[in-house]
Amino acid sequence: MILQNLDILLLSLNKYLKKAKEEGFNIVAHAGEEADVSYIYEALDLLEVQRVDHGVQSIKSRELMQRLKKRANTSYCLSKFKY
Q: Is 33 tagged catalytic?
């Protein structure tokens, strides 16, 4: 149900994100702070973000770390987390 609601939200936001990109705005998502890496993948693939904030969970996927390195800026706040 949550994923279905997220899909509906993304579809409704899509026109606004597209307009923002056309106007030269960078798209940023807070993803992977506490949830698993799938949220970071969705930010990259569905939202086409230029930056992921608090994506600390990305350390759990080597492939994802490589994608972030090539494609998006990422910021981390490591002091908040216990591994």
A: yes
